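Hey, resending since the last one bounced:
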Amino acid sequence: MRKRIFSTVLLWLIIFATIFFFKTWGGVALLVLVAVLTQREFYQMVGRMGHAPFVRLGMLFGGAIAISPILVTHHPLLTSGNLLAIAATAFAIRIVGERHPENRVESLGWTLFGLVYVPFMLQFLVRIILMEGPHAHTGLALGVWLIAVSKFCDVGALLSGMAFGKRKMAPVISPKKTWEGAIGGLLTSAALGAALVYFFSEYFPATLSPLLAALIALPIAALGIVSDLVESVIKRRANTKDSGATIPGIGGMFDLSDSLILTSPAGFLIFSLL
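The structure tokens again:
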């Protein structure tokens, strides 16, 4: 627990320091790095399943897709969808002459899934950071809000589960998760979401009130829980406890970013409607 607390505090200090010194570009660079490292760990777990994804080429396209919201401002054809189509074509060409006949389909499928599930989904968080608003750093504020609401749901769920947890949520997938913990996580996210908007209202859109922020935080946090369960499914299939050992007390980069994968596109859609 001490290692987890230390790592959590250190990671938030890194986030705030990066944003303070490098503003939007720092936030984007940090997210692209997280996306590519997460994708790498995903492919490593796929390798433990006995498959052979195209790791380096996949990560190359992953980095391009993660930063595509910026690339498209320089050339309209460099959208995430177009880059994904080009990647699919490149992978399809490679499996014709590479890999063994019995695992060519799996190589193509897992490489593409890793590209879609990680960098394609996380590029929506980059798009959030680039959003314009009443303040010069409204996009950054919305990005930090989404990350905080998504990640502190884990903290609230952990503490609530330890104190009140009795009913298992998904005993086969993640035995430690309980319904009581999930409710505590949702309430923690709602309270934090409202508090951030209340104390830093000048950074957020005028239409986003603390009450609305709390209401929005509930489905965002719920998706974060689902996203975490999906990673648990993948880890169980790969017969591994953690996606890596990069972060003491937490695990790998995938263990850090898992809850952001489903919340990023949902957050972008919601914020676009504000």
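The chain has a mean pLDDT of 91.

Sorry for the duplicate.
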